[in-house]
Amino acid sequence: SLNSIDKERIRILWSKISKDSDAIGAEALGRLFAAHPQTKTYFTHFKDFTYNSPQVKEHGKLVMKGIKQAYENIDDMVTGLLDLSEKHAFTLRVDPSNFKLLSSCFHVVLSKRYPNDYTDEAHLSFDKFLANVALALSEKYR
Ligand code: ZNH
């Protein structure tokens, strides 16, 4: 799980990226739909799956709101994301394997947008963070 070094790296990274949150969310989702087309099946009401689609942008904002919620509850994500986990498990029925696919898209987006700040170490710690988010979101599946 996340140690104090990870948390410090995530704090520094978050201070750099949070202002671009909406764009990051849209890009990560656009990439998810392009690189892993099977993920589009959860969004039957979307008309356009590209980065610039208003629906992708809107949903990107929502996902980043969830990421922010996770960041603000970094020491107890399971509790912090309980409602969101319930929603993904019971209402949306998203297979948890999709969380890993989205995480890999976040890595690509961050390394492209922040070639200097997204160091190997930042990548390592942010990957642990996203794995914890995925675990917390999967909490209600059992
Ligand atoms: Zn999800 C929704 C978050 C992943 C699918 N999401 C959602 C929301 C949020 C989120 C916040 C909103 C909710 C309400 O409304 O209440 N997600 C999130 C996060 C993550 C995610 C944080 C990670 C990181 N999701 C995901 C995935 C998928 C999904 C991977 C698949 C693929 N979601 C989804 C859906 C929805 C959501 C389908 C719904 C949409 C609509 O309705 O439009």
UniProtKB/TrEMBL annotation:
<dbReference type="GO" id="GO:0004601">
    <property type="term" value="F:peroxidase activity"/>
</dbReference>
<dbReference type="GO" id="GO:0072562">
    <property type="term" value="C:blood microparticle"/>
</dbReference>
<keyword id="KW-0408">Iron</keyword>
<dbReference type="GO" id="GO:0005344">
    <property type="term" value="F:oxygen carrier activity"/>
</dbReference>
<dbReference type="GO" id="GO:0031838">
    <property type="term" value="C:haptoglobin-hemoglobin complex"/>
</dbReference>
<comment type="similarity">
    <text>Belongs to the globin family.</text>
</comment>
<dbReference type="GO" id="GO:0043177">
    <property type="term" value="F:organic acid binding"/>
</dbReference>
<protein>
    <submittedName>
        <fullName>Hemoglobin, alpha embryonic 5</fullName>
    </submittedName>
</protein>
<dbReference type="GO" id="GO:0020037">
    <property type="term" value="F:heme binding"/>
</dbReference>
<keyword id="KW-0561">Oxygen transport</keyword>
<keyword id="KW-0349">Heme</keyword>
<dbReference type="GO" id="GO:0046872">
    <property type="term" value="F:metal ion binding"/>
</dbReference>
<keyword id="KW-0479">Metal-binding</keyword>
<keyword id="KW-0813">Transport</keyword>
<dbReference type="GO" id="GO:0042744">
    <property type="term" value="P:hydrogen peroxide catabolic process"/>
</dbReference>
<dbReference type="GO" id="GO:0005833">
    <property type="term" value="C:hemoglobin complex"/>
</dbReference>
<feature type="domain" description="Globin">
    <location>
        <begin position="1"/>
        <end position="142"/>
    </location>
</feature>
<dbReference type="GO" id="GO:0031720">
    <property type="term" value="F:haptoglobin binding"/>
</dbReference>
<dbReference type="GO" id="GO:0019825">
    <property type="term" value="F:oxygen binding"/>
</dbReference>
